[in-house]
What we know:
The protein is α/β, with parallel strands linked by helices. The chain has 2 domains: 3-140, Cytidine Deaminase, domain 2 (3-Layer(aba) Sandwich); 147-361, Dihydrofolate Reductase, subunit A. It is built from 12 helices and 18 strands. It has helices spanning 3-16, 53-61, 86-92, 112-119, 130-136, 138-146, 176-187, 196-202, 231-235, 252-260, 277-286, 298-306, and strands at residues 30-35, 38-44, 69-72, 97-100, 123-125, 150-157, 162-164, 191-195, 218-222, 242-246, 264-267, 270-271, 274-275, 291-294, 312-317, 327-328, 344-352, 355-362. The chain has a 9-stranded mixed beta sheet with strand order 11-10-9-8-14-6-15-18-17. The longest helix has 14 residues, at 3-16. The chain is globular, with a radius of gyration of 22 Å. The two termini are 28 Å apart. In the C-terminal section; belongs to the HTP reductase family. In the N-terminal section; belongs to the cytidine and deoxycytidylate deaminase family. Converts 2,5-diamino-6-(ribosylamino)-4(3h)-pyrimidinone 5'-phosphate into 5-amino-6-(ribosylamino)-2,4(1h,3h)-pyrimidinedione 5'-phosphate.
Amino acid sequence: MTETDRRYMRLALSLAARGLGNVWPNPAVGCVIVNHGRIVGRGWTQPGGRPHAERRALDRAGEAARGGTAYVTLEPCAHYGKTPPCAEALIAAGIARVVTAHTDPDPRVAGRGHAMLREAGIAVETGVMEAEARAAQAGFLSRIERGRPWLALKLATSFDGRIALANGESQWITSAAARGMVHALRAEFDAVLAGGGTARADDPLLTVRSFTPLRQPVRVIVSRGLDLPRERLAGSLGTAPLWLAHGASAGTEARDWWQARGAELIALPETEAGLDPEALLHALGDRGLTRVFCEGGGQLAATLMRAGLVDELIGFTAGVVLGGDARAALGPLGLSHLTDAPRFSLSETRTIGGDVLHRWRRD
C-alpha cells in the first residue's frame, strides 16, 4: 500500500459518505478512477442504490478509464441484479488495476468480484484503508453479517444527563446549532426510531426539516397498542414513510386506520417487558434498513441498551444543570455490578453551537 493509494482511497471514502441515508438496502460506495496521475472519473452510489459508484465513475471517465486504476471502497459486485455486475463494467472499460478497501461479505459477491477481475488480467489489491472503510460501511456490514441494521442512540442532555424538567419541560436544552446538526444526522441514516411514549408526549414529525434531503428517512415508531396521535403523523405520510411496530394487543380499528392511510405495520412478538427489541431490529433488517437513528424515549433506549443492541452513542451535552428531580435520559438498566455496564469507546468529540457533540462506539 502506497501513500498515493491511501490518498485516492481517502477521496473515494469521502465520496461514499454522500450516499449515507439514501442508498439502502445497498452499501454507500465511492469510486475514483485515476490515469497517469490524473483523476478522470469519480462516482458514488446514487439514491435508491442505482447506479453504482463504479458505473458513475466509468461514465464520467469514458475512454480515459482505459489503462487506469479504479479505487473502490468495497469489492465490485459480481452478480446480475437490476444492472450488470460492476466487475464486468470495469473489465469492459479496460481498467488495468483495481484497488479496494475490503471484500464484500454479501454471499452474492464474497470474493467473486475480485476473482472476475483477476481472471480478466486486472491487477487487484485489497485491504487499503480497510478499517476506515468498515467503520464507514458499518450499517451495510451489520445487515449482511448480523441480519440487523447498525443502531445509533442519540441523547441530547444537560450536563448531568437529564432530558427534561420534572414537569416535562424540555425545549430547549441544547442550542439551535445542535438541533440543526440532529437534522443533518437524520439525513445520514435510513430510518429514525422512536417509542410510543415519545410520540404521545411530543407528537414529533421525525423528518429532516432544516434542509431538503435527497431522501427522507423512514420513520419507525414502536407502540405495542398503536395508541398514537394521528393527525401530524398521518398528515405527513406524503413527506416521509411511516412504519409502526406493534404487538398483538393493537386493536383492529387502529391497525385498519393506519394501513388505510399508507403506514406500514410491523407485528412483533411481545415479552413481559414489552415488544421484543431484537425481533424489531431483525424485522427492519429484513426490510432493507442498514442504519437506524434512535431518538428515544428513555424506556425504548433502555430496552435497546439492556438487549445489547446499541452500536453507537451520539450525545449532545449542554452546559446546563437540571438536578436529580429532572427526567433521566435512560430508563432503568437493572445493573448490579459496574462490570455489567455497557462500555463504549470515544470516536469523535467537537463543539456545536456551545454544546459538546460526542460519539462513542461499542467496545
